[in-house]
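Good morning,

Attaching, inline, the backbone tokens for the sequence recovery test we're adding to the shared suite. The designed sequence is right after.
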């Protein structure tokens, strides 16, 4: 079989593959075969960072509407790539790029942090913000900073498909109509 190096996105129902897999490896679940994307550049696992081995399964409740109109909640799992492996992956591929964090606002036991990703020339690649409160975490400033960095890295393609903050659910951010059918 020839070498295939195109990037195919990992889907939520893929299972992790063993370390040492190549871009030619497939996983088959739910009767479908899926290519495993090892990194945004489509590199095979020839020393490249392999995010699949750091993937966690997080519990999630999924709202399902039945044909009779009733609503049922199903317990499922979704893949999640923690921020630390996203940073390691980013640093391996772009050691000369920067992650800059700053406080946007801190008041009344809450903080908004901002993270900016810049390339080697200083050009902004992504910017993200994250708000946390002391009631959510005693180390809320650090959590907000980590969250902002994770969101910025996700915007650059590092863990994007495994970033729950990008799951819009029934609240589509760019939808032309709102949830009650009125135009925005």
């Amino acid at each position: 079989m020839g070498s295939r190096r195109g990037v195919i996105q990992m889907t939520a129902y893929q299972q992790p593959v063993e370390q040492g897999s190549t871009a030619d490896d497939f996983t088959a679940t739910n009767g479908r075969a899926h290519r495993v994307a090892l990194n945004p550049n489509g590199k095979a696992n020839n020393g490249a960072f392999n995010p699949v081995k750091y993937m966690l399964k997080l519990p999630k409740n999924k709202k399902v509407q039945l044909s009779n109109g009733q609503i049922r909640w199903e317990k499922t799992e979704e893949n999640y790539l923690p921020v630390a492996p996203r940073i390691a992956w980013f640093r391996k591929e772009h050691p000369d790029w920067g992650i800059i964090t700053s406080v946007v606002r801190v008041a009344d036991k809450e903080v908004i942090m901002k993270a900016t990703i810049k390339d080697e020339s200083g050009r902004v690649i992504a910017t993200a913000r994250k708000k946390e409160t002391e009631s959510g975490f005693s180390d809320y400033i650090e959590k907000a900073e980590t969250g902002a960095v994770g969101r910025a890295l996700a915007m650059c393609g590092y863990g994007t498909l495994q970033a729950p903050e990008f799951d819009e659910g029934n609240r589509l951010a760019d939808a032309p109509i709102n949830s009650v059918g009125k135009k925005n």
